[in-house]
Design goal:
The complex is a heterodimer of chains A (about 325) and B (about 350). Chain A is an all-alpha fold and about 325 residues long. Chain A has a domain of about 150 residues: MetI-like (MetI-like fold, Orthogonal Bundle), CATH 1.10.3720.
Chain lengths: ~325, ~350
């Protein structure tokens, strides 16, 4: 359930904080427990991280070895030609553009709308505020179901339309709650001062509140960005036009349908066939792994950055209070 | 200072475990006590005249909400027709409750939906059974004292939460297909001669699906408990130590009970979501071999509606699912209200 998972990130613990429990006495049993405990966590971390490492080393290893699952610890027969080759695959550059576009546009729209609505719903003077707030939030708890939503999208002309990647995600109740809670913690005097100066509500939002909401908006941006980048289901349901495929969808097709990969490789022109060296000739396995790495790398790179951002956001929140 | 795991920590009340839960669950339908305080402050803000302009500026967004969340409810009417998209609703035949009767009347249909429900509930209950794992993860990670180690473990174990199910499937494919790593290692060790079919098999589908969910969600699920642990009053541990409680006793008699309220709330929410497994995970993992045991309700609705083109039947099933889910949510919320004196939604 997105509701709970998203909140947890906000309350993410600063990993560097001091342990809260007193240091254990150093009995042999205690030392044994400490070692065993640490070992279990090393194993868990390995199980979580190794698959990513496996994909990366295989994407830069000799393709025939990768296809046999022989590359396990270090790259063998290092080469980067897979990365040149995949961008010549039929449809892949377009999918990359679509994916980046939906991530950037979709995230920007969601962040702005969440900020604006979260702020507006703190405005006591708004006509029927309570009613409209509930009207918005309650949509978290029900859904008409796949087919009715699909038919609505179709009737709105949103099937095979880029905007199906953006419009349905603009208003997200949970993000609105986050922003609203945050705005409520900001001093009301900010707004009063601006009102005395004659600013209207939209000006107050853009000039005073928006610039001061960065920590919470960063959180919203990260969640919405990751969700956009990872989204697969909407392409599956609403899109049949190949020029609107996303990277995730293309990857799925390449994993599951050997034919579509073979076709894309054939359509990519003479380049694939031109390479005679057995170590670097394309195999479906290496192509799939290379695309996977392209899809997952942005997440791996962004992730440590935003993990720190949460800690910062929590501190800012604390200082403001 | 900054170790209060609060969202908009603006009110200066000490963040206790229940505070964390409140942040977690006070999702606005009933405004939290915090919101009341903010209300008081807002009363001082601005005049008492209702502003219609303020409403007008949010109308475009309300229209979006209406279009994507409320308007599709009208589509439930398709469940009373034999809806053919080419003919439109006007041209389609009105069949009354035929689809609902078929659902409980036709033996093949009953067998099919029975299997789907069994899959759905089995996977949901396995999910509930494994929900103690993040709790245990947090409690034991808290016993590790080196901050860098805790940080590294948290970073690495949280990563799978941020990748798509397509990528999880790609990883499963690379590691567990017949030419994948695991089969390679097993045959190198001489344990097998024929590759084990991990993916193209109908055996243990519920368990493997649960294991992938655990792999993806374990580290992430633990974060909420780690936040709650950092909110536990240190004096409790000090007092226990003076009383001679050992390490495990402190874990069992202090940490665990202090985390229980958080755990119960999450448990109740997962009960409310019993029928909502989502379809993405099961869609990407489904194949001709495992279809019988992997088809959960959400996937079934997709398969008969979008692949099988029986839009009306899919609508009928989806509608029943939505109604039962809302009923479950209300029930669970009612229980929570009675037991904890606080609603969870």
């Amino acid at each position: 359930m997105t509701t709970t998972t998203s909140t947890t990130a906000l309350t993410a613990v600063n990993p560097t904080q001091q342990p809260r429990t007193p240091a254990p006495r150093r009995t042999p049993g205690s030392i044994a427990f400490t070692m065993l405990n640490a070992l279990v966590f090393v194993l868990l971390a390995f199980v979580c991280a190794y698959p990513f490492y496996y994909l990366i080393i295989n994407s830069v290893s000799a393709n025939d070895l990768a296809a046999l699952g022989e590359v396990r610890w270090f790259p063998q027969g290092f080469h980067l030609s897979n990365y040149e080759q995949v961008f010549q695959l039929n449809g892949l550059p377009m999918a990359a553009i679509v994916t980046v576009a939906r991530t950037v546009i979709g995230t920007a729209a969601t962040v702005l709308a969440s900020a604006f609505l979260g702020f507006m719903f703190t405005q006591e003077r708004m006509w029927a505020r309570q009613f409209w707030y509930r009207f918005t939030i309650i949509t978290m708890y029900f859904s008409a179901g796949l087919i009715p939503v699909f038919i609505v999208m179709k009737n709105l002309g949103l099937t095979n339309n880029f905007w199906v990647y953006v419009l349905p995600f603009i208003v997200q109740p949970f993000f609105i709650i986050l922003v609203k809670t945050y705005v409520e913690s900001m001093p009301a005097s900010l707004q009063e001062a601006a009102e005395v100066d004659g600013a209207n509500i939209v000006q107050i939002f853009f000039r005073i509140y928006l610039p001061n909401m960065t920590p919470i908006l960063a959180t919203v941006a990260i969640f919405s960005g990751v969700a956009q980048w990872n989204s697969f289901q909407d392409t599956l349901i609403y899109i049949t036009d190949q020029s609107l495929y996303t990277l995730q969808y293309l990857l799925y097709m390449f994993i599951n349908q050997a034919n579509s990969l073979a076709q894309a490789m054939a359509n990519s022109g003479g380049n694939v066939g031109a390479i005679v060296d057995a170590a670097t000739s394309q195999t479906p396995t290496s192509i799939r792994m290379t695309i996977s790495v392209i899809v997952v790398l942005p997440i791996i790179f962004i992730y440590p950055l935003f993990q720190r951002f949460f800690v910062k956001g929590i501190m800012l929140g604390a200082v403001k209070g | 200072m900054c170790d209060r795991p609060s969202v908009g920590a603006g009110n200066g009340d000490p963040m206790t475990t229940s505070g964390v839960i409140q942040e977690l669950t006070a999702t606005g339908l009933e405004e939290s006590p915090k919101a009341e305080q903010a209300e008081r402050r807002r009363k001082q803000r601005g005049g008492r005249r209702p502003s219609f302009t303020m409403f007008l500026v949010i109308v475009p967004f309300l229209v979006l909400i209406f279009l994507f969340s409320y308007f599709p409810l009208y589509g439930w009417i398709y469940s009373l027709y034999d809806y053919k998209p080419a003919l439109g609703l006007q041209g389609s035949e009105f069949v009354g409750l035929q689809w609902f009767q078929l659902l409980v009347g036709s033996p093949t249909q009953v067998a099919q939906i029975g299997q789907v429900l069994l899959n759905t509930l089995a996977i949901s209950f396995l999910g509930i059974a494994t929900s103690v794992l993040p709790l245990a993860f947090a409690i034991f990670l808290n016993e590790v004292k080196a901050p860098w180690f805790r940080g590294a473990v948290q970073t690495l174990t949280t990563l799978p939460n941020f990748i798509s199910w397509v990528l999880v499937y790609m990883i499963a494919f690379s590691l567990f297909s017949s030419t994948g790593l695991v089969n390679g290692v097993l045959s190198d060790m001489g344990l097998i001669t024929v590759p084990v079919k991990f993916l193209d098999s109908d055996e243990n589908v519920w368990i493997t699906m649960t294991l992938w969910s655990v792999w993806k969600g374990l580290g992430w699920g633990a974060i909420i408990y780690l936040a709650a642990i950092s909110g536990i009053d240190r004096e409790l541990y000090e007092a226990a130590e003076i009383d001679g409680a050992g390490r495990f006793q402190r874990m069992w008699y202090i940490t665990v009970p202090q985390l229980m309220p958080t755990y119960i709330v999450l448990l109740l929410l997962s009960v409310a979501n019993l029928l909502n497994n989502g379809m993405e995970q099961y869609y990407v993992f489904q194949n001709a071999f495992n279809k019988e045991h992997i088809q959960v309700l959400d996937l079934y609705v997709y398969n008969i509606g979008m692949t099988g083109n029986n839009l009306s039947m899919a609508t009928a099933i989806g509608m029943l699912k939505s109604l039962i889910s809302v009923a479950l949510l209300f029930t669970v919320n009612g229980i929570a209200k009675r037991v904890r004196g606080q609603s969870i939604v």
